């Protein structure tokens, strides 16, 4: 079973969404102080990168 470019981008998108959710969850529940804002901001950044990966599927 070979993986082409679209499957690699799909897996990367899935992993980035999971990591974004994990970081936002850490920012909300674990670090309720100022560090939580940083964790949540990085999680939103992961969502943005996952969105770009998803947009690149079929074009690369």
Can you tell me about this structure?
The chain has 60 residues and is mainly alpha-helical. It has one domain. Helices cover 82% and strands 0% of the residues. The protein is elongated and about 45 Å long. The chain starts with a helix and ends with a helix. The model has no long low-confidence stretch (mean pLDDT 88).
Determine the fraction of residues in helical runs and give it as a percent range.
over 70%
Mean pLDDT: 88
Total beta strand runs: 0
**Shape verdict:** elongated
| CA distance, first residue to last residue | 20 Å
The percent range for strand residues is: under 5%
Ranges where pLDDT stays below 50 over 5 or more residues in a row are: none
**What is the count of distinct domains?**
1
Radius of gyration, taken over Cα atoms and rounded to an integer in Å: 14 Å
Number of helices: 2
Pattern of helices and strands? HH
Structural class computed from helices and strand pairing: mainly alpha
Largest sheet: none
Summarize this, please?
With 60 residues, this protein is mainly alpha-helical.
Blueprint (SSEs and pairs):
Blueprint: H1 5-30, H2 34-56
Features:
single chain; elongated; 2 helices; 60 residues; 0% strand
């Amino acid at each position: 079973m070979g993986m082409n470019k679209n499957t690699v981008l799909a897996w990367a998108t899935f992993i980035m969404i999971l990591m974004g959710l994990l970081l936002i969850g850490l920012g909300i529940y674990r670090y309720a102080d100022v560090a939580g804002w940083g964790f949540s901001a990085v999680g939103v950044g992961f969502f943005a990168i996952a969105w770009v990966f998803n947009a690149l599927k079929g074009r690369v």
